[in-house]
């Protein structure tokens, strides 16, 4: 006669199923998030089309492409930056990329006038801006990591100081500009997903594809970096090399995103923070897709509401940055581990 089943024996039988359920839960949430993202993007593309369909789509499809590029680059760059810094309240903008972009634009307008921003538009200008920002990042990393006292903390402090210097120089030059030139410059210094040249998108998608493949192939190494320097070295990972490679990838993503759609300081921070909460894990294979989906929902859904519900004109990214700044301050003042 078999012994009766007791409550003490039940978890031994159900534990494997419980573990599988917990493992499947993030992917179910990611699937739901991407379903909402596709719905938001479809609503923006196909709802309330007035006038010629071809004209409407010629305006909406580049914006949809810019939304996908901005969501992916900001999500991946911010999550990677949290990994290498071991801090979830920092953003890649702390390294001065946004400030360098602003300084480059300001110097061009100061030297050649406001019309230079329209005359030099094109893929060569986009690649030139990206190359300058990536070169700045690589030289900064090489200088700091090659020294005896090189560390991530020193890198962050130097990035903050350089960013402040760039902003101060930009502010000084802006005060010397003619009012007309200043107005033209101000438009370029805001995030602008609705004013992206469609010819940029093939190159943008190619950069996203390459960065995504690189990050996916190294996802397990990136997960190991979360364990800390000693643990990563203990399992045979070259910690400094992997940190430098991740920082270079971050530089490429942030530089290209900034050159394409303008500065987005807190957008990546907001979607990455929500992704951590919704997935309940730190694994890059789950967090990055969730953060990207949340970015698409925020940009596509927000643009749809701004244009077709509130009938408002303006930059959606300004609203997102305002909300993101409030969330950043709230988390910073909570006095708990992040």
Show the helix and strand layout.
Blueprint: H1 10-46, H2 53-85, H3 97-112, H4 116-119, H5 123-146, H6 152-174, H7 179-188, H8 201-217, H9 219-225, H10 229-234, H11 239-261, H12 267-279, H13 284-308, H14 316-332
Describe this structure in words.
The protein is an all-alpha fold. Helix content is 75%, strand content 0%. α2 packs across α12. The longest helix is centred in the first third of the chain and has 37 residues. 34% of the residues are buried. About 5% of the residues have low confidence.
- The helix count comes to 14
Percent in strands: under 5%
Average of per-residue pLDDT values: 80
Radius of gyration: 22 Å
Shape: globular
Low-confidence stretches: 5-21
Helix content: over 70%
Roughly how many Å apart are the termini? 54 Å
Which characteristics define this entry?
single chain; 338 residues; mainly alpha; 14 helices; 75% helix; globular
Question: How would you sum up this structure in a few lines?
Answer:
75% of the residues lie in helices and 0% in strands.
């Amino acid at each position: 006669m078999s012994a009766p089943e007791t409550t003490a024996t039940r978890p031994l039988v159900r534990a494997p199923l419980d573990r599988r359920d917990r493992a499947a839960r993030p992917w179910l949430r990611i699937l739901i998030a991407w379903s909402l993202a596709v719905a938001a993007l479809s609503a923006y593309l196909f709802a309330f089309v007035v006038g010629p369909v071809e004209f409407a789509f010629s305006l909406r499809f580049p914006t949809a492409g810019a939304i996908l590029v901005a969501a992916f680059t900001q999500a991946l760059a911010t999550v990677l930056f949290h990994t290498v810094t071991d801090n979830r309240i920092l953003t890649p903008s702390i390294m001065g990329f946004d400030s360098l972009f602003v300084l480059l634009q300001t110097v061009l307008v100061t030297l050649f006038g406001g019309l230079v921003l329209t005359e030099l538009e094109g893929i060569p200008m986009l690649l030139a801006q990206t190359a300058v920002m990536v070169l700045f990042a690589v030289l900064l990393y090489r200088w700091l990591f090659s020294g005896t006292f090189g560390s991530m903390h020193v890198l962050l402090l130097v990035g903050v100081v350089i960013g402040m210097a760039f902003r101060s120089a930009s502010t000084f030059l802006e005060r010397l500009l003619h009012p007309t030139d200043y107005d033209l410059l101000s438009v370029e210094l805001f995030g602008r997903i609705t004013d992206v040249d469609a010819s940029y998108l093939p190159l943008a998608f190619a950069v996203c594809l390459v960065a995504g493949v690189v990050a996916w192939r190294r996802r397990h190494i990136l997960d190991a970096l979360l364990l800390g320097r000693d643990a990563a070295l203990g399992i045979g990972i070259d910690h400094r090399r992997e940190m430098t490679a991740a920082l270079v990838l971050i530089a490429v993503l942030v530089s290209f995103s900034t050159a394409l759609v303008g500065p987005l300081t807190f957008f990546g921070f907001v979607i990455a923070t929500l992704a951590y909460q919704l997935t309940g894990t730190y694994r890059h294979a789950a967090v990055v897709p969730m953060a990207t989906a949340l970015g698409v929902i925020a940009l596509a859904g927000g643009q749809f509401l701004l244009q077709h519900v509130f009938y408002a004109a303006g930059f959606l990214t300004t609203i997102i940055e305002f909300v993101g700044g409030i969330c950043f301050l709230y988390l910073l003042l909570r006095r708990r581990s992040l």
